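User: Could you go from structure to sequence for me? I need the amino acid at each position, not a summary. Structure tokens:
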């Protein structure tokens, strides 16, 4: 009895110590599970989901502060809304995709925000979104999903602001952004070369007449009361005098803009993608883009399928998703119907500009 009385406090503390240890272990176990899941889920796809819901982060007007880590993954909200899912099944082996996701999470953890080494500078309605979405599946490329408009509208915000928008990259990775209006911005080449003489420039060009109609179709979808294409395109239609002050016409005079770029950059720093071939042979065009960027050719035929409903090539598996995906509804719209006579007049107008452009870049884009 005396023995029992003596040992009962000891037993009590032993029991207490046992329960305390068990509950401590359980807490630790739960914490570890939650924490590890959190770390594993910090991949690009997850960030996309997190960021895309933030209204401040999206939109073409990328103004103000962008949340740390979101800028890289954010898909322009408008863009994301436009980008409807593809309809065909994929069913292809995707080892690079896995590698890419791994690279992305490593970059997010250990990488740094750097100024871009490459830019898609134009042209509007040339196919710039397709090139950006296609090239960003490469594991050595990280791209900003939105158009930052730094070298045209936001230059006063300074390089630190611009750098802050960029995705984190490892030293081996290329940082890329696209803003198609740079190509026709007078100050853009000088500003870009003062950031770095080494910047690689990608220009996606397309038949200037089709490009103008595409541009007009887009504006009309936002402003239904717009004058007709013919009214805007000509100062005097019967005399065939084209209105070169109309942006939709002016953008397509590629040689004029190119001459401005060539005052600051060597031709070898510029790569021209054919907007037409990008649709008929996306793998071929992307092969040349990879060569230009000094990347191993990883993006190939097996990454694309032709979606008959969309009428365009789509990705079997884009960077941020495991699902096949086509670009959105604003890419590949049905164009406004334009008289063949008007088209011929504009073809005639652009011909001398096109020829000079072909000679300068050393490529025939066959727009005639
Ligand atoms: N794979 C694929 N899917 C959909 N669309 C494709 C693709 N490849 C090129 N294109 C062409 O891209 C045109 C839009 O060009 P941009 O992305 O440069 O437009 S924008 O300036 O960013 O608004 C868009 O122009 P429209 O056909 O006039 O809509 C397409 O013709």
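Assistant: Here is the amino acid at each position, in order:
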């Amino acid at each position: 009895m005396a023995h029992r009385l003596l040992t009962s406090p000891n037993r009590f503390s032993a029991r207490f110590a046992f329960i305390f240890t068990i509950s401590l272990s359980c807490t630790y176990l739960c914490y570890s599970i939650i924490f590890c899941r959190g770390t594993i889920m910090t991949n690009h796809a997850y960030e996309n989901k997190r960021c895309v819901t933030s209204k401040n982060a999206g939109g073409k007007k990328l103004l103000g502060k962008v949340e740390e880590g979101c800028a890289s993954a954010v898909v322009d909200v408008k863009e994301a809304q436009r980008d409807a899912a593809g309809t065909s099944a994929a069913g292809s082996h995707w080892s690079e995709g896995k590698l890419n996701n791994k690279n992305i999470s490593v970059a997010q953890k250990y990488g740094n925000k750097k100024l871009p080494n490459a830019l898609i500078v134009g042209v509007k309605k040339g196919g710039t979104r397709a090139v950006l979405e296609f090239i960003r599946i490469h594991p050595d490329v990280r791209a900003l999903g939105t158009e930052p408009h730094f070298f045209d509208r936001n230059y006063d915000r300074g390089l630190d602001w611009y750098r802050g928008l960029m995705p984190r990259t490892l030293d081996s990775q290329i940082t890329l952004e696209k803003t198609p209006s740079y190509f026709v911005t007078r100050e853009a080449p000088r500003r870009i070369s003062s950031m770095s003489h080494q910047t690689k420039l990608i220009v996606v060009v397309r038949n200037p007449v089709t490009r103008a109609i595409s541009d007009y179709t887009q504006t009309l979808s936002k402003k239904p009361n717009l004058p007709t294409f013919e009214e805007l395109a000509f100062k005097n239609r019967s005399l065939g005098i084209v209105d070169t002050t109309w942006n939709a016409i002016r953008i397509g005079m590629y040689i004029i803009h190119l001459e401005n770029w060539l005052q600051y950059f060597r031709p070898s720093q510029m790569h021209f993608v054919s907007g037409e071939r990008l649709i008929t042979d996306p793998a071929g065009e992307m092969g040349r883009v990879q060569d230009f960027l000094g990347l191993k050719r990883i993006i190939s035929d097996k990454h694309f399928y032709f979606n008959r409903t969309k009428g365009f090539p789509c990705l079997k598996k884009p960077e941020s998703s495991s699902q096949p995906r086509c670009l959105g509804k604003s890419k590949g719209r049905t164009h406004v119907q334009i008289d063949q006579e008007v088209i011929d007049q504009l073809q005639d107008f652009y011909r001398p500009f096109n020829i000079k452009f072909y000679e300068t870049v050393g490529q025939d884009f066959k727009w005639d």
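One structural detail worth keeping in mind: The first strand starts at residue 112 and ends at 113.
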